[in-house]
Structures are given as structure tokens and as C-alpha cells.
Write a structure and sequence with these properties.
By secondary structure, the protein is α+β, with helices and mostly antiparallel strands. 55% of the residues lie in helices and 14% in strands. The model has no long low-confidence stretch (mean pLDDT 92).
């Protein structure tokens, strides 16, 4: 099954399995080898006319906290079922207005081999206080690339989807 098909299957499964009134719209679902991330939209709270930005932000924070506490048991039940069914951990995020808040996330160790020059770069980041450890420094570097190369990464992902489509349309060699 391709990544796209896996994501579509999971999105459909969660859309059908989650309580109907949990989110305002079908959930967004992303997946990798270890984790399924479910992002649901909830309604923004109504605030008084002329409310300040601080008041609106506090209302959104309160709405997210209330939603998290109220839906915890339902989300845990669905996550356990999905983890058993699909062999991946489930992470929950919520979107309220312009705010996206993770409830749970998974940090997965990734083994890599680095040459001395690359290790020295990580050590410089640690020595400068940018990161607490080589692991944190490497994660910081990955985030920097992700933030600064969004267009390039989007093009790369689109090219990968095209390769999957061409591969799927090819002859069955099995």
C-alpha cells in the first residue's frame, strides 16, 4: 500500500470511528512508520464584541483545555483500537481558529552516522547553548531545514506522489 493509500485509509477509518460530534470537520490525518497524527478542528469560542487579542487568545486556550479534558476517554479508546489495528501510536492535535495545539506527540530515536565535521557542528550548537545535546542539536537542524525549505520539500513530496502513481499504474510483476 502506498503512503497516500495508507493515509486515505486511516483518514477514512478515523472519520468513521470517531464520535460524530467530536470535531467540526473530518480530521486531518498524517502518518509515518511509527505514528498516526490526528488533527481535529473545534469551534472557536464566542467572545464579547470588541474583545482584545489577549481575551480572544485566553478564550481559545480555555476552549482547547476544556475539549482535551472532556474528550480524553473517547480519544484514548479510539487510539487504543487504532494502535492495535494499524501497529502505530496515535497522536492527537486540535485546531481552534488559528491556534493548533498538540495533546500528544511521539519522539522517536533515529540512528545516524556522522563524520567528524558534522559532529563538530552539533558540538558547536551545544557549546553555544542552542541545544542541550547532540540529539537536540540534530533535531534543531532538521527543524531549520523544514522551515527554510518548505517550497522545495513540497515539490519533493509532490514528485514522490507522482512516482507512486506511475508505479501503481505499472504492470503487476507479482
Amino acid at each position: 500500500m502506498t503512503t497516500r493509500e495508507t493515509t486515505e485509509t486511516l483518514r477514512g477509518w478515523f472519520t468513521g470511528r470517531l464520535p460524530q460530534d467530536l470535531f467540526d470537520a473530518p480530521p486531518e490525518v498524517t502518518v509515518d512508520r511509527e505514528e498516526i497524527t490526528v488533527i481535529g478542528r473545534i469551534p472557536e469560542p464566542e467572545t464579547a464584541e470588541g474583545a482584545s487579542a489577549a481575551e480572544k487568545a485566553a478564550a481559545v486556550t480555555g476552549r482547547i483545555k476544556e475539549f482535551r479534558e472532556r474528550t480524553r476517554s473517547a480519544r484514548v479508546r479510539v487510539a487504543r483500537e487504532a494502535e492495535h489495528e494499524f501497529g502505530r501510536k496515535v497522536s492527537w492535535w486540535v485546531r481552534c481558529g488559528e491556534t493548533t495545539q498538540p495533546f500528544t506527540t511521539l519522539s522517536v530515536p533515529v540512528m545516524t552516522r556522522l563524520k567528524q565535521q558534522d559532529r563538530q557542528l552539533l558540538d558547536t550548537l551545544v557549546d553555544a547553548g542552542v541545544a542541550r545535546s547532540r540529539s537536540d542539536a540534530l533535531a534543531w537542524c532538521v527543524r531549520q531545514v523544514g522551515q527554510r525549505a518548505e517550497t522545495w520539500l513540497a515539490d519533493l513530496r509532490e514528485a514522490m506522489r507522482t512516482v507512486e502513481q506511475v508505479r501503481d499504474a505499472g504492470p503487476d510483476l507479482g
